[in-house]
Amino acid sequence: MSISDGAVRKAGPMPVASRGWYRWVICGLIFAATSLLYVDRLTIGFLKPALSQQYHWTQADYASVVQFFMFAYAVGFLLFGQLIDKFGSKRGYIIAVSVWTLAHVGCALIGFLPVEWVLVSFMVSQAVLGLGQGGNFPGALKVVAEWFPQRERSLAIGWFNAGSNLGAILTPLIVPFVLLAFGWQWAFVATGMLSVLWLLIWIPFYSTPAQSKFVSKSELAYIESDPFVPAQQLPWLRVLFKKETWAYALGKLLTDPVWFFYSFWLPSYFNDSYVAAHGPFLGMQLPIILIFLISDFGSVTGGWMSMAMIKAGMTVNRARKLTLLICAACVLPVAFLTTLTHDLWFTVGIIGIAAAAHQAFSANLMTLTSDLMPKEAVGRCSGIGGTAGAIGGIIMAKGVAHALSGLGGYSTVFLVAGLIYFVAVFVIHIISPRLKLAVFVVKPT
Predict the structure, then answer these.
(1) Residue 405, φ and ψ in degrees, nearest 5
(2) Helices (H), 107-183
(3) CATH number at residue 251
(4) How far apart, in Å, are the Cα atoms of 135 and each of 43, 91, 97, 405, 433?
(5) CA 131, CA 37: separation in Å to the nearest integer?
(6) Whether the model pTM is above 0.70
(7) How many CA atoms lie within 13 A of 179 on its CB side?
(8) Element counts in the chain: helices (H) and strands (E)
């Protein structure tokens, strides 16, 4: 037999009132994990000048290190998407954070190797880092699917996704200080130890809601208040070939590269465009910090927006897509950034709003995994989408390189970054016009 859309979407009991608070503690834990993921990921970028000077790296050498990370990150999404669905979010998260932390702290040991081994060693270590970090978002989405009813998931995702902005703010505050005081090797150790501390908190305090000693009966009833969907084992290939998976994956393929551009190229953009007038610190670090501070607001607001629409009586389909469309409209001015202004702070404002709108868009896009898939397939679906986003990031890297070599420069890149969200909303709507839960055949027992 099969699980029909009608059976899944059938009206259940009256909604249970929101009760309890421990689910938000869990949300705080995955917020912290996402923050630390970005601290560890971006550390090497802030150490690039020191490493390039010491080991005579070229731009191509550094690009190779980044590419090794991106390829492994794409594989990590697929690998951990399946592992997390199979072994659960607690063990899956432990494995993912342990792998990327060992790789990150291990970078400190590279300084003791012969010079000719250093570049290759960084490529390998960053590849292992990317592999482990591929488990964060599948794990976090699985946690949200387990701990939050559908009407609260977009807000929970908005909160944990805001961790990416906090990580991007903390990195330029922590890493340069440790670098100047103790050297680049200790920057890897200091930031990596934060992830070790997170593991020491995660292991004793996380369990499923039904097994948690911190969850009251009323909060558990609220968490489990969505209509029941029969549990089943869903092979990876069955999830891969569902059109609902591709509504999410193509959205990630189109929009994730914009965030990679903001993460890896904004420092260069501000250096190239404003450093002569404002000096190196004002030309790079302060604008970056302000942009990510603004984007934090967008992540939470985007999650709240669709939740408020649903609570007001709007269907999930209309609330999610209307929010996505509003976000796409807020991004639009960045498409014309280089013609609109050459003022530093106006530029920061436009990019900051675009980055905030991206995070709001991303929070709702990630919520689609639990809108379109049963809980048993959320990890696999998010893994496939994450891989698609990483592939988009690799394509974006090539495209940015070509654009900056003479094909319009940053104007071309910002034009694409400003328009692509409308394309993504259109694609999602064409593939899944009603956001119906995927239908899987249930094997008779």
Answers:
(1) -85, 0
(2) 115-133, 136-147, 150-161, 163-182
(3) 1.20.1250.20
(4) 19, 11, 8, 34, 29
(5) 12
(6) yes
(7) 16
(8) 19, 0
CA gap 125, 374 in Å, rounded? 35
Residues with Cβ < 8 Å from 383, sequence gap 6 or more?
A: 77, 78, 79, 80, 81, 82, 84, 134, 138
The whole domain housing 244 covers 5-9+19-431
442 in a domain, yes or no?
no
Q: Please give the tally of structural domains in the chain.
A: 1
CB hemisphere CA count around 59 (13 angstroms): 3
Q: Phi and psi dihedrals of 19, rounded to 5?
A: -140, 155
Let me know: does 159 contact 303? Beta carbons within 8 Å.
yes
Q: What number is the average pLDDT over the span 371-383?
A: 82
Give, to the nearest 10 degrees, the angle between helix 150-161 and helix 22-55.
30
Cα 45 to Cα 3, 42, 62, 205, 265: the distances in Å are: 48, 5, 9, 33, 10
- Cα atoms found within 13 Å of the Cα of residue 93, Cβ hemisphere only: 29
Helix (H, G, I), strand (E, B) or coil at 2: strand
Euclidean distance between the first and the last CA atom of the chain, given in angstroms as a whole number: 11
Burial of 69 (0-12, 13-18, 19+ CB in 10 A): buried
Question: Which range (178-192, 221-235, 293-307, 345-359) has the least confidence?
Answer: 221-235
How far apart are the C-alpha atoms of 253 and 387, rounded to whole Å? 8
On average, the pLDDT of the chain sits at 85
pLDDT tens digit string along 33-73? 999 999 999 888 878 878 888 998 876 787 788 888 888 99
Instruction: Report d(CA 140, CA 133) in Å as an integer.
Output: 12
- Cα 145 from Cα 152, distance rounded (Å): 10
The verdict on residue 261 lying in a domain is yes
CA 187 – CA 77 distance, rounded (Å): 26
Q: Is 241 exposed, middle or buried (0-12, 13-18, 19+ CB in 10 A)?
A: exposed
